[in-house]
């Protein structure tokens, strides 16, 4: 990391974040260490993300997030959300194809449209037009779901840009993933060492 995390014992809020990370994953993730300078922002991010996720089908949320993460060249988020997709919804090779070129991946036309839109929102939201929205509607997405997809992509832009700006590399624990899968989802910074 470019910035030094604050010591765990320097603030009860940091200790709570680290304890929660250890309970959930067995280690303290680099993204959590990044937030040690502003633990209240970590809490706010978690609340925002939870609110977005509660209104959107998990598979759609993960597709939108992967599309945004790969468009933003965030290895960290691509690996994390690609792993969820490969564990819960698709084969690893299918997810690797989505990360490489979702338009050529084995997806339905609706899922491809969703990923196109999420990637566009994440990187070039100023170029979104009525035609993009109409295309999603033609694929069966209602306006509330379109808003939720946009929210997931926009929130991912905040999170990935923050992690990239402070030098949070994807956790070394991702080295346990299949090498070909890991390589396809490493679209930016390499894994942290150690």
How does this model look, in words?
The chain has helices at residues 12-25, 30-34, 39-54, 58-71, 75-88, 92-101, 109-124, 130-138, 143-165, 179-185. With 194 residues, it is mostly helical. Helices cover 66% and strands 0% of the residues. It has a domain at 57-185: Up-down Bundle (AhpD-like). It has ten helices and no strands.
Structure characteristics:
single chain, 194 residues, mainly alpha, AhpD-like, 10 helices, globular
Topology:
Blueprint (H helix, E strand, L loop, with lengths): L11 H14 L4 H5 L4 H16 L3 H14 L3 H14 L3 H10 L7 H16 L5 H9 L4 H23 L13 H7 L9
Helix pairs in contact: 3-9, 4-5, 4-7, 4-9, 5-6, 6-10, 7-8, 7-9
> Within the CATH hierarchy, at the fold level, what is the topology of one domain?
AhpD-like
Oligomeric state, counting identical vs distinct chains = single chain
Find the CATH superfamily of one domain: AhpD-like
Q: Beta-sheet strand percentage? A: under 5%
Reading off the top of the CATH hierarchy, the class of one domain is best stated as: Mainly Alpha
Give the helix tally.
Answer: 10
Estimate the helix proportion, in percent: 55-70%
Q: Average the pLDDT over all residues and give the rounded result.
A: 96
Radius of gyration: 17 Å
Unreliable runs, pLDDT <50, ≥5 residues? none
Number of strands: 0
Please trace the helix and strand order, writing H or E for each element: HHHHHHHHHH
Shape: globular
| CATH-derived architecture of one domain | Up-down Bundle
Main structural class? mainly alpha
The biggest sheet, with number of strands, parallel, antiparallel or mixed sense and barrel status, is: none
Distance between the ends? 13 Å
């Amino acid at each position: 990391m470019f910035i030094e995390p604050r010591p765990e014992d320097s603030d009860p809020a940091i200790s709570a974040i680290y304890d929660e990370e250890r309970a959930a994953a067995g280690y303290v993730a680099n993204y959590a260490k990044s937030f040690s300078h502003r633990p209240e922002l970590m809490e706010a991010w978690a609340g925002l993300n939870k609110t977005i996720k509660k209104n959107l089908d998990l598979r759609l949320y993960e597709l939108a997030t992967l599309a945004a993460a790969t468009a933003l060249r965030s290895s960290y988020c691509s690996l994390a959300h690609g792993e969820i997709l490969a564990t819960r919804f698709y084969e690893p090779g299918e997810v690797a194809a989505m990360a490489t070129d979702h338009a050529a991946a084995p997806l339905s036309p609706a899922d491809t449209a969703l990923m196109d839109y999420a990637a566009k929102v994440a990187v070039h939201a100023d170029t979104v037009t009525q035609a993009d929205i109409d295309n999603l509607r033609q694929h069966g997405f209602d306006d509330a779901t379109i808003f939720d997809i946009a929210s997931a992509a926009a929130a991912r832009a905040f999170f990935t840009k923050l992690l990239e700006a402070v030098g949070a590399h994807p956790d070394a624990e991702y080295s346990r993933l299949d090498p070909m899968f890991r390589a396809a989802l490493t679209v930016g910074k390499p894994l942290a060492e150690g």
